[in-house]
Write a structure and sequence with these properties.
This protein is mainly alpha-helical. Helices cover 44% and strands 9% of the residues. Helix 6 runs parallel beside helix 7.
Length: 218
């Protein structure tokens, strides 16, 4: 973890600043255009993954789960299904006993490469998420939601990837993850979003921070 993460962990307070409404409007326009283009360009990959999932195990292609969006509103997040249909629902991966037993063969590949997150492009397209922002918590992850309240992190659009994801991802404890989300909320802007976007590409390529059963696992 970088120096910024260590310094943030030592900090006891963080000033909450409301994000600029003008920037949030621009951010939404950019999200809409990017998600529309992504849905078109990535459609062949979607088709290949759909076929692979159906051949690998029984059950639906998509996995829906109730998540917390901006201002603690609820929506159904979409993912490619990576687990068996008998997996307990609404339970974070780190709370499952031996989570590996539930993950399918194709699911292991999807989770390692983060390709299971691709359907969230639709969530971005319809305005439920942004490309960059705090990862949406499960509706019953009250500890994370409460911690984010302390830093104003529940008042910005949730995202496909964010500041916490490039600074530890699954390895982060809840308290530090919320502080990093608060740091993003405080510094939200074009420079921060661009930085998170490109850092995410490198993080995914290296599979940094991906650990089944980690506190941030989903």
């Amino acid at each position: 973890m970088g120096n910024e993460t260590l310094e943030l962990e030592e900090s006891t307070t963080q000033k909450m600043v409301a994000p600029s409404k003008n920037y949030l409007h621009i951010k939404r326009v950019v999200d809409f255009i990017c998600s529309l283009l992504a849905l078109i360009v990535l459609s062949p990959i979607f088709l290949i993954l759909i076929i692979a999932i159906k051949l690998d195990s029984k059950g639906p292609v998509l996995f829906k789960q109730k998540r917390v969006g901006i201002h603690k509103t609820h929506f159904n997040i979409l993912k490619f299904r990576t687990m068996r249909i008998d997996t307990p629902n609404d339970v974070p991966t780190h709370q499952l006993k031996n989570p590996e037993q539930y993950i399918t063969k194709v699911g292991k590949f999807l989770r390692k490469t983060s390709l299971d997150e691709l359907p969230q492009i639709w969530n971005i397209f319809v305005g439920q998420m942004s490309v960059i922002g705090p990862r949406p918590a499960l509706w019953n992850q009250y500890d994370l939601i409460d911690e984010r309240d302390k830093y104003g992190a529940n008042d910005v659009p949730v995202g496909l990837t964010g500041w916490a994801q490039i600074n530890g991802r699954d390895e982060l404890p809840i308290r530090l993850k919320a502080k990093l989300d608060g740091e993003y909320a405080k510094r939200i802007g074009p420079c921060m979003d661009i930085r998170c976007f490109f850092a995410t590409i490198f993080s995914v390529l290296k599979s940094d921070g991906v650990r089944e059963g980690g506190t941030g696992s989903e």
